[in-house]
Protein 1
Amino acid sequence: MSAKDIEWIEKCKKNPEQYKIYVDNDCVSVCDCKDEDGESVHTFAEYGYYFSLQLLRYIGCNTDMV
């Protein structure tokens, strides 16, 4: 995971009333709940099982792709 992705995960964890993560089959992005337009403020570099792999590694799991 990039430093920017990690920064956004932490922002979302600390501010759930402001940021929401949307998971789609080809995109994982962050939207600002307080923005009336609901525009994405960040799109993660990975999605799908690649995103899952990176997220599990980030939280400290011994993970590998099979």
Protein 2
Amino acid sequence: MKPSVTKLVCGSLILLGSVAQSQVDSTSLNANWRLNVEVGLHVFPGTFNDYFGLADWRPQPSVRIGIGKDIHDLLSAEAFLEYRGYLSTTRYGDMFPWIFARSFSRTEFALYTSLTAFGFLEAGIGAIAQSHEEIVYYETTYDHTLSEAPHRQPAASRVKLFYLVGLKYDIPLGARYYVPIGIYLDMFLGKDEIQSPTLRFGISKTFN
């Protein structure tokens, strides 16, 4: 091989190598990771609809922790662990309500992944473990007096699949900190049981 050809080939390989390295460096710079901590509040608590236990459950503030990564300029993926808590009212029903001995608690742990497109459209799918403690209640009679003996519903637990959709926006604070804020809706797979819209906001940090 002639020296001029050898130089040309070597020069081409060096150029291709530098271009490839620049692409790797560019990709690594754009491949941001993200840590999120968010609080969730139900927007219309009275519309909460999930038939699990003899109670009218009132949602408490939820907390979710997430880690995500930018996989494209317009697409990012995240994984979340979320805690949700609920308290029952002390009265359930209208004409002949059940009167609860006290307010009972229900807890949920959700694990799910989501994709966010264009920075504001989020959709996810995952599983949620639900449980409530034993419920003690009294029935009311036609003359609106309480039954003498209490009734009991045993403590229960279950796991269900669900999906969520939402609209979000990250408010930049500087130094790679953001305030994520969004509105989300959950629905169980194969069921018409949905939760009221949830407003989530918190703090996030991106890093390479």
Protein 3
Amino acid sequence: MSKKEEKLLPQSTKKYKGFEMKNSDTNPMVTVKVASKELGKSKSEIKDLIRKNLIDWKLKNGSYVVDINSIKEEKTFNNSVEIPKLIKQIFSETLKDFSSNPNISGSEMCKVFKRVSKSNSLNIMDGAEIFEYAYHTAVDFQKTENINYNELLNNFTHEYKKIYTESQRRFKIDRFDKSVVSAEHFIMICFIKLNFNIISMIDTEFEWLNR
């Protein structure tokens, strides 16, 4: 990938190239040059849409390809979702943990949690960053706890609250209980997987959440 292409790529994708946008494997994709010619839009306009994540795109052999239909509609996938109160609370608590640690307080992940803690919506790129960050501890929680998968799929709001309430009970007993953070990460992953079609090479333990 050239430096010019790297500059265009959204910041979160620069680090996690295992993620693709929803529908990117189901709709025909064309180069930016072809899309520009067919739609009468400048290449810079289309690249700006890529940069802002407003269309369906992906990298193919080092070049950007886009779905023309998504450019016409400007939105063919859930680019962002509203953050429920409990999820926002978990994001805020995670931000506090980051901010209190001088070794990671200036990290990219800290900046991500700062953004989502202040926002009312979560976009797919920040969701992908959080997914990558929280995945392994969420898997640990899933392997050691008794998970009600049926409730998570059919009554997830109630189940999120149940898992979170139990984690807070454990925190009051032992503030260093590792399962507390794992529980929060598990809830994050479930929320992200239920709202975004995120494709990742590491994602094997949460296939049950795929719709």
